[in-house]
Amino acid sequence: MKLLAILTAISFLGACSMSEKGFVEQPDQYGLYVAVTNVAMDIPLQIKSEETGEVISIQTKPFGMNGRGYLEESLKPGRYYIYSYHPYANVTVPLLTATGYFDIQVNCFNYGGYLNFGMDGNRPEYRNTIDLMDIHQLPQSMSNLAKGKDICMAPLGKTNQRFRYGDIKDLLSL
Question: What DSSP character marks residue 140?
Answer without folding.
Answer: H
